[in-house]
Amino acid sequence: NDRKYQIGNGEAVNHVKPLPIGIIAPVIIDENSLIGSNVVIGPNVSIGKNSHLERCNVKNSIIMNDCIINAQIKIVDSIIADGTEIRHNNSDESVYLLGERSQINS
After folding, report:
1. Residues near 15 by Cβ (< 8 Å), separated by ≥ 6?
2. What's the 3-state SS for 37-78?
3. Among residues 10, 21, 63, 85, which one has the fewest Cβ atoms lying within 10 Å of its Cβ?
4. How far apart are CA 27 and CA 84, in angstroms?
5. Distance of CA 49 to the CA centre of its chain
6. In this predicted structure, what is the pLDDT of residue 70?
7. Are 60 and 43 spatial neighbours (Cβ–Cβ below 8 Å)?
8. Which residues contact 17 (CB under 8 A, 6 or more apart)?
9. How far apart are CA 26 and CA 46, in angstroms?
10. pLDDT tens figures, 16-66
11. Cβ neighbours of residue 9 under 8 Å, at least 6 residues apart?
């Protein structure tokens, strides 16, 4: 099996058993990031340091450092810059190009 996840400080974890969250390789998750419940990540996703994801589905996207995504949302083909917060969204699927410290609350 050649699918791998890179998690934290350059450590790779082979996909051997189903995980409690959905991860579809390839995925990079940097250190101190928290992937909560009801999250599906991948394929082709990079999550920066100190980010926190809950209740979302992310694919083909880059989530940079210090981001908070806690919304029932599907994020595709997006770049989300440092310090961005997405706490609520009414759309089923969204494409974002968000600058630093952006906030989406409604």
Report:
1. 1, 3, 4, 5, 23, 25
2. CCCEECCCEEECCCCEEEEEEEECEEECCCCEEEEEEEEECC
3. 10
4. 20
5. 11
6. 92
7. yes
8. none
9. 9
10. 445 456 888 899 999 888 888 788 999 999 999 999 998 899 999 999 999
11. 31
Count other Cβ atoms within 10 Å, centred on residue 35: 22
Tokens of residue 7, six digits: 């998690």
Structure tokens at 97: 């190009």
pLDDT value at residue 1: 42
Contacts of 46 (CB under 8 A, 6+ apart): 27, 28, 30, 61, 62, 63
- Let me know the angle formed at the C-alpha of 42 by 16 and 104, rounded to the nearest 5 degrees: 140
Torsion region of 85: left, alpha or beta (phi above 0 gives left; psi -120 to 50 gives alpha) = beta
